[in-house]
Amino acid sequence: MAAGHGAQGCGSGALLGRFGVLLQALLALCAFSTLMLKRFREPKEERRPWRIWFYDTSKQAIGAIFIHFANVFLSDLTEEDPCSLYLINFILDATLGMLLIWFGVKVVSWVVQRKKYTCLVFGEYGDPPQAAAWIGQCVLYFLIMVFEKTVISLVLLIPGWTKLQQILLGYIPNPQLELVLVMLVVPFIVNAIMFWVVDSLIMRKYKQKDTLDINGSIESPWPRRTEESQVLLSPDVDFDQSESDQDISGLQGTNQKMKQPSYQVVI
User: Fold this and answer.
1) How far apart are CA 167 and CA 7, in angstroms?
2) pLDDT tens-digit profile of 68-120?
3) If we measure between CA atoms, which residue out of 239, 213, 212, 211 comes closest to residue 223?
4) Are the beta carbons of 133 and 119 closer than 8 angstroms?
5) Which phi and psi (to 5°) does residue 192 adopt?
């Protein structure tokens, strides 16, 4: 089995070889260009400034770098084909891992809003933007990625992945072509989708932009303004009538008080 894999698959250390590192650098450039494309696809009135965009996308960059090198490390732990092992890790990260990231972001966001840690709300950096809020959010997102990779590593311990490993890339005789598919073509397509989705999860929600107060609750000032505007726009006669009604009611109240008999208690 080991000889067969050595004849057709990638050799040990191929992922960190010169050609493998070149493919990884090209993958990073192409994958993160999708985030720049996403920014230009945003409406002009909601388009993020470059500093906010950098704060948002850098969290994904840190998480993606951690996941990538964790997959490379796990792929070289055994004598099996490292390319197919890397591909299995990557497929699990893009499917089950995506659900775990979504769940982690939702749980962390709920805890942060419940504890009223405004600076740790994903996409909220203050006005002006504070680097401390960005660092705190990076730490939270990195912990989510550690949780995701830990669960995926436990899933890989389930027996039966060797057969899938032989099916995925066993038909490719050229190790260089296998490396290109595993390290560039498939990761670029999947990463582009993942980056787009995760960026939408952790970016600022502009529907709450004008109504988010310090405590994280949403308050709209419009009902209060409409009530005041209705009072201010009402005719003067209404004021006169309301004032006269108040005067008449006040006089009636005083007359009733004067008409009420007084009693003295004699012991």
Assistant:
1) 15
2) 889 888 887 776 778 888 888 888 988 899 999 999 999 999 999 898 888 88
3) 211
4) yes
5) -60, -40
- 3-class SS letters over the chain: CHHHHHHHCCCCCHHHCHHHHHHHHHHHHHHHHHHHHHHHHCCHHHCCCHHHHHHHHHHHHHHHHHHHHHHHHHHCCCCCCHHHHHHHHHHHHHCHHHHHHHHHHHHHHHHHHHHCCHHHCCCCCCCCCCHHHHHHHHHHHHHHHHHHHHHHHHHHCCCCHHHHHHHHHCCCCCHHHHHHHHHHHHHHHHHHHHHHHHHHHHCCCHHHCCCECCCCCECCCHHHHHHHHHHHHCCHHHHHHHHHHHHHHHHHHHHHHHHCCCCCCCC
Picking from 194, 185, 145, 204, the residue whose alpha carbon sits closest to that of residue 35 is 194
Provide the whole-model pTM: 0.66
The C-alpha atoms of residue 255 and residue 249 are separated, in whole angstroms, by 10
Predicted local confidence at residue 126, as pLDDT: 84
What's the pLDDT tens digit per position in 178-216? 888 888 888 888 888 888 888 887 777 554 444 344 344
Q: What is the pLDDT of residue 142?
A: 94
Pair of tokens at residue 64: 């993606």
CA 183 – CA 70 distance, rounded (Å) = 14
Per-residue b or e along 62-81, where b marks 16 or more CB atoms closer than 10 Å to that residue's CB: ebbebbbebbbebbbeeebb
CA atoms of 9 and 3, how far apart (whole Å): 10
Tell me the two tokens of residue 53: 């965009």
